[in-house]
Amino acid sequence: MNTLVIIIIATFLVSLGALVGAVTILLNEKRLKQIILFLISLSAGTLIGGAFFHLIPESLERMPENMNTLFWLVIIGFIIFFLVEKILRWRHCHDSSCQEHQFVGHLSLVGDGIHNFIDGLLIAASFVADYRLGIATTIAVIFHEIPQEVGDFGLLLHSGFKKGRALFLNFSVALIVVLGGIIGYLFSSRADSFINFALPFTAGGFLYIAASDLIPEIRKENRAWFSIATFLTFIFGLLLMYFLKKING
After folding, report:
1. Cβ–Cβ under 8 Å, residues 175 and 114
2. What is the DSSP letter of 26?
């Protein structure tokens, strides 16, 4: 199958995560918080696993003589994601009752649009480098998108949007990931250096999201049994990416 077609399919699957927000309407707040916490734990594990088991090793294979450059790119990715969050107030509010950004519903959509476009670029670069790496990156992004999209949907509702309009806008913005994938393919297929930059950069971004946003959410849980369960879910996410690497060779 043509690589561009695969990228379009993969990015479209990622965009479907925006529709998960509709399901949250059917759940009470307590049950929703529990489900989201497990999703956040899984997301943290897959993002860290994606960075250390897939993206960084692939980068090492592509740039064996430029290890210093590679790790600087990882750090730059970490820093850039931090700056984007600070400048655009791009914070992944995973709690559907989040009050922190009620007044920035529209700004949230802009930030999500940029975020989704970047995700598309990175997924495209991964598939162009190696389809197995593309699959791993897509899985990591999907597991991260689901809890984020639930939070985004809740934020739009609390910002005054009607449920139907909030779902429509959230999904429309999510489709930007497909555009990012197409543009990323057109660019990366002509510039090998872009892939060498994008892979470690993505690893840095994954590590930033997991370390600064997701793991702190998991640590807020004080109940012993629930803490153990979310920790095991986090480990499962890591192992999932590890075994995916072993299966794909």
Report:
1. no
2. T
> What is the separation of C-alpha 20 from the centre of its chain, rounded to a whole number of angstroms?
15
Q: Is 162 exposed, middle or buried (0-12, 13-18, 19+ CB in 10 A)?
A: exposed
Question: Up-side HSE of residue 24: CA atoms within 13 Å toward CB?
Answer: 30
Encode pLDDT of 185-241 as tens digits. 988 766 567 777 878 887 898 898 888 877 888 888 788 888 899 899 899 889 888
- Residue carrying structure tokens 């850039």: 80
Whole-prediction pTM: 0.67
Domain spans, the chain: 3-248
To 5 degrees, how large is the angle CA 193–CA 77–CA 110?
105
CA distances from 130 to 5, 61, 76, 133 (A): 15, 12, 23, 5
